[in-house]
Amino acid sequence: SAGRHRLDPTRRCLINSDNLEIRLTNLEFRLLHLLMSRPGSVFSLEEIIESIWGGYGNGDQVLLKNVVYRLRKKIEDDPGRPLFLQTGQGGYSFHG
Fold first, then answer.
1. What is the dihedral of CA 83, 84, 87, 92, to 10 degrees?
2. Residue 81 has what DSSP assignment?
3. Helix, strand, or coil (residue 29)
4. Calpha distance 29→26 (Å, rounded)
5. Confidence check: pLDDT of 94 > 60
């Protein structure tokens, strides 16, 4: 949980502040799980890639940016002005 948002790992979804269920892909879920583990903390791109893809070379910054883009479209009222999934100095953070 972060603020009024919570992840449901059994259904792989985010329950938002309006109590609506937002279905997530595996990568979207893993990214949110990481970011919501320390709300407000900025995770570096390298830290996220290592955590999500595990250092096997399967993840890169372009793929990460695509996951963030898709996730913002799902969870933000205005993806162009994100309130929850924010870009910080050198990475991303979640603000619930």
1. 170
2. S
3. helix
4. 5
5. yes
Tokens 């953070």 correspond to 93
**DSSP string over 1-17:** -BTTBEEETTTTEEE-T
Handedness of CA 69, 74, 75, 79 (dihedral sign): positive
Q: For 22, list phi and psi in degrees, rounded to 5.
A: -115, 115
Residue-wise pLDDT tens digits, 21-39: 999 999 999 999 999 999 9
CA atoms within 13 A on the CB side of 69: 6
- State pTM to two decimals: 0.90
Measure the CA dihedral 6/3/78/74, to 10°. -10
- SS3 sequence of 30-78: HHHHHHHHCCCCCEEHHHHHHHHHCCCCCCCHHHHHHHHHHHHHHHCCC
Are residues 57 and 43 in contact, defined by beta-carbon separation less than 8 angstroms? no
- Residue 79 tokens read as 């993806």
